[in-house]
Hints:
Blueprint: E1 2-3, H1 15-26, H2 39-51, E2 63-66, H3 69-80, E3 86-91, H4 97-103, E4 107-112, H5 123-129, E5 134-140, H6 152-166, E6 174-178, E7 204-209, E8 222-226, H7 228-243, H8 254-263, H9 265-287, E9 302-306, H10 324-335, E10 337-338, E11 340-341, E12 352-356, H11 361-376
Parallel strand pairs: 1-10, 3-4, 3-5, 5-6, 6-7
Antiparallel strand pairs: 2-8, 7-8, 9-12, 11-12
Bound molecules: pyridoxal-5'-phosphate.
Pyridoxal-5'-phosphate (PLP) binds next to helix 3.
Amino acid sequence: MLGFAAGEPDFPTPRPIVEAAKAALDAGQTRYSPSIGDQPTREAIARKLTEENGLPGLEAANVAVSVGGKHSLYNIFQCLLDPGDEVLLPTPAWVSYAPQIGLSGGVVRELATSVESGFKVTPEQVRSAVTPKSRVLVLNSPSNPCGTMYTPDELRAIADVVAQAAGSVAPRLVVLTDEIYEKIVFGGREHLSMGSISSIAERVVTCNGLSKAFSMTGWRVGYCAASADWGRDFMKAIGRLQSQTTSNIPSFILPAIRTALTECADEVAHMCDAFEARSHLIETRLREIPGLRFPSPEGAFYVFADVSAHFGKTTPGGTRVESALTFAGALLDEAKVAVVPGEDFGGCGPSCVRLSFACSEDQINAGCDRIARFIASLG
Ligand code: PLP
């Protein structure tokens, strides 16, 4: 089986990070620590977000460390949403947002995107979706599953709409920006943090983590931050929730976070270069296959391809391809290639499959050979 389904980098965690955790273990850093991170780690994250991302008004108290980006997001929705609050969610979107919003009593309002729009929402879409119940606009750039990202100008235009809406129809509106793929961007594209845009900076919660950029999925490190007094109060709320649920992440990982953020830029760049080379390869190979429509990958490590041109056809094994799910199922059974069907991502997801290129170039070539043969065999 050739897997294009992984949502995690295939590289080992950089050595300095591993060594920092080992040293902390050897030094006995094995006891409880403050629930949402110790002071030096929260300070290091605040410094990173200030210097690299341009977020204003940040100190350690504006940051909370949690058990992975997913946990940070869960905490954020729990602390922001009251029952019935609306969350504007551009779709297709990563699978955990909608269930987490539901668990908080929030109501998802999907903003549908398409291959043609690069799976991105327009400012007009946001403007017309905002209501007095709008509490959160979720943005995820670069995107899982779409592999595309917003330009700085596109984000500034959306920020203008948010600022206007917050001053009129939707005074409680907050932007939740999930920037977990910020370091995996291709072609010299600029990643802009919404939290750095001064007109909305004090209504942005930035979520990030070490899983993707530092190849640390199993370590479970996520964090969130928000600027100024509002941000400090918000982190207190997250601290109250987290102190009654998970408490701190493993204490000996805290120094490793600081090492990752301050000493591993070369390793991160090296992994990004490898993802970029693979993005070119997989795009070239997939463009040769008829009936696949997708925007060029710009960041993260995914291609999200519309395969609906093949719906209605039948595989040599006798399966009628009627959906992304049946396409992916038959591809797995008959060609031994795993991709993720798009149904759970919402929006136009049911027409699409996600291919992760967090795998070797040899595997990309072998997998694309098989996908091409599979598609050619459909009748
Ligand atoms: N956000 C996005 C868009 C993701 O793709 C993921 C993981 O797949 C996460 C957040 C959560 O990452 P983790 O909980 O592994 O840090």
